[in-house]
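Hey team,

Filing this mostly as a record. A colleague (T.K.) asked me to run one chain through the structure pipeline before their review meeting, and I want the input and output archived in the tracker in case anyone asks later how it was produced. No errors, nothing strange. Just documentation.

Input sequence:
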Amino acid sequence: MDTGYCISCGLCVEACPYSALYMGYAYERAKYRRQDLVQANEALLASPERRASAYMHPELEKTLPEQTLLIDKIHS
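Output structure:
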């Protein structure tokens, strides 16, 4: 998969009829050279370092950490 074409819009996740695609949290796929953006299928699998988000997958919401606002952390 050539991740250089991805703009992280999430339309592929919404359109997948098999619920096989997930959005992620990080931008660790960023590279300096265009040819390094082509990823093998194994590199795209979820792992402890690259967790899937619950975008369009509400069944994963209970496994995610609680979301807080930065302002809440400042005042506590």
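Quick notes for T.K.: DSSP finds two helices and no strands in the chain. The chain has one domain: 3-74.
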